[in-house]
Amino acid sequence: MYLQLFYLVLRCIILEMLLSRYHHQNKVLERATVQNILKISKKTKHDLLTLKNAIKTFNDIFGWASLLDILSASLGTLIHLDFLVRNEIHLDFLAALFGITILLLCWGYILVDVCLCDSILERYDQIVMAACQLEISMSDAGSLEKEESVSLKQMVCQNRPEFEAARFFALDKTALFKIVNTIVTFLLVIIQLKSNL
Description:
By secondary structure, the protein is mainly α. It is built from five helices and two strands, in the order H-H-H-H-E-E-H. The chain has one domain (2-196). 83% of the residues lie in helices and 2% in strands. The longest helix is centred in the N-terminal third of the chain and has 50 residues, at 37-86.
């Protein structure tokens, strides 16, 4: 249990660090001019590839933990909802309250993780827009600067980060709705089974 919470907090910290680096890259691209495009482009390409590799490593390290945390929280939620449907919660109120508190804490960290992943993807969309605007602003520049801006835009468009839960599904805001949909579906099955008994 404590290791699970440690991984959840650690993922939040690392995702916040990645988000700040993508924010920095966006600011660098927004400040690019004709005079410094060659220097900025080379550094930005290197930094974005490094960040993409960092996210790949993040997925390798935390992908299975993310998947297992989501499964654990989902199953725990279903177990507690099953107790509520069966009216067995009165047997051990303090244990049930402790379990629900831990579940809410886990869901809170999962929500923060998924929102941070989605924020990084939104920030990357802003980087793509900045690269496109840079390419447009370089249309009057020399051929070397123009080629460099086109090369930068292509590189940015081809290296979009992806957060995954053990390569089963993407970690973005749509994943939250899919998880809630699955829990509600199973809850309806539990209610139907109870009514049949």
